[in-house]
Automatic annotation (TrEMBL):
Classification of source organism: Bacteria, Pseudomonadati, Pseudomonadota, Gammaproteobacteria, Oceanospirillales
PANTHER family named in the record: HTH-TYPE TRANSCRIPTIONAL REGULATOR BETI, HTH-TYPE TRANSCRIPTIONAL REGULATOR RUTR
Identification of the protein by name: Bacterial regulatory proteins, tetR family
Keywords, ordered alphabetically: DNA-binding, Transcription, Transcription regulation
HTH tetR-type domain sequence ranges: 11-71
SUPFAM superfamilies: Homeodomain-like, Tetracyclin repressor-like, C-terminal domain
Pfam families: TetR_N
Organism of provenance: Marinomonas spartinae
Molecular function (Gene Ontology), one example: transcription cis-regulatory region binding
InterPro entries, sorted: Homeodomain-like_sf (IPR009057), HTH-type_TetR-like_transc_reg (IPR050109), HTH_TetR (IPR001647), Tet_transcr_reg_TetR-rel_C_sf (IPR036271)
Amino acid sequence: MKTSSNKQPDKDTKTRIMDSAERAIVQSGYGAFSFRDIAEEIGIKSASVHYHYPTKGDLAVAVMTRFTDEFRALLPDPKVASIDPRAMLDGFIDGFKKKIVEQHNMSLCTMLTADKHLLPESVGVALAEFYEVKLSWLTQVFVRLNNLDEDQARLKAGQLLASLHGASVLVQATGEVDWYEKALSLWR
């Protein structure tokens, strides 16, 4: 079997295709990659990419679904009384910082949101589902943390997400990492 330096023989083809697509979206957005690019990167034929994912939308949905599932698995259950809701909130903020700010990337969901006008409806649905996971989880944390009703807690969850995404854009635009903590200091 012929392997390139980017090829990872321990992963199956579908996983390598999704990994390549995710990297491409994070680096350049939905519109900036093709099946040919992915095939070339992982050392297969373009027809093989199409075999696993008939359309670019199918591939993006698979990437978003995997991303959502992995993200959900990392979240502690906010209803567990032994876990401090303040620690969960700080962990969420720190996790976002590690993934976005320290890696000098925009997030997969931010890049797809920026390209929303290009996305097939199925990708938009998968993207909305990811944001709903974040909103729902944060809502539950704010219910416990601030003793709020669901509507008030969901509003705070949306405000925090807006702050997180705004802070990451500010950091990427200015190159000044300190903006992240300055922007999120009110949430700590």
